[in-house]
Amino acid sequence: MKKNLCKNSGLVLSQLGTGCWSFGGGDYWGEQNQKDVNNVVHASVDMGINYFDTAEAYNEGRSESSLGEAIRGIPRDKIVVGTKISPSNCYKKTLVTHCHASLKRLRTDYIDLYMIHWPIHPHSIRHFSDDILIIENPPTVDEAFETLMELKQQGKIKHIGVSNFSSNRLKDLPLEEIVVNELPYNLFCRSAEYDILPKCEAAGIGVIGYMALLQGILADLYPTLNDVPVWQRRTRHFNSNGTKECRHGENGAEPETNAALMGIRKICKETGLTMAEISIKWILENPAITCTLVGSRNIHELEANVKSVHEPLGMDLKRELDKITCPIKEKLGDHLDYYESAENDRTL
Questions:
Q1: What would the mean pLDDT of 266-276 be, rounded to a whole number?
Q2: Cβ-based neighbours of 267, under 8 Å, separated by 6 or more
């Protein structure tokens, strides 16, 4: 497994990382067996994966607890644990308390990579808290980073990162202290290419890509878009009129998405590769992506995902996939938030 260096630090991440959102089970992903979690985590390390990504918000902390259980017995220097704090919890005292709570759930003395989950501003915070006092008087960015630096000096965290930060939100931050920016990136979510990927590359900030398989759509799990479960059908790819769980209020890009799926299925038949393999290989061709997260519910899924790294996609096939998915990229534009309308983008 290839490892990539984050230029602003000595942090080295495997090109594939294990996304842990489903760990601990919850309404979004359903039940998750802890034995399977343990097997996936240990097998990930055996296969060369060193990065494991979670957040305090995932399954109300159960993801962190599940990962903490799974990493028991693995030498700590063999793994990189990343977790995220919600923007509503970035007041100085609250941030310290929540960091300690994450450390306890993860059963570790330090967090390798501690990230602010979304930009700190009222619109973003509404999705994490309904406390009107927090929404109207959010933590300041300066307060948050001052506290993060203190936690780093104390050895509680090793590296500082952000998640879902657009160029507009990065410009007022101490870029030399930011190791990574975690962003949505896959064949159908290419908005990062417009601006933020070059910005991060120029600033020496690594990029962790998430939603590599667009929550199963790019693993070809669903015969039609109507078969996609409602919780996975909330992105701007879908017409909000057909899914009450959507909150973006837009017409979506279903014709473009269907056309792209047909084109990728044709390539699958021609190459013998699965759609998941093609989708992961396509991401790995982009040198701006330091690590891409893939969720694996069991060993079988993990083995299928890791298989993708063995042979490169090739530039000809990459260019063909670029062309097939370009109409989606153009339709959805340069907005990083795939769950909100362009006007309500939480990353701006």
A1: 97
A2: 273, 278, 317, 320, 321, 324
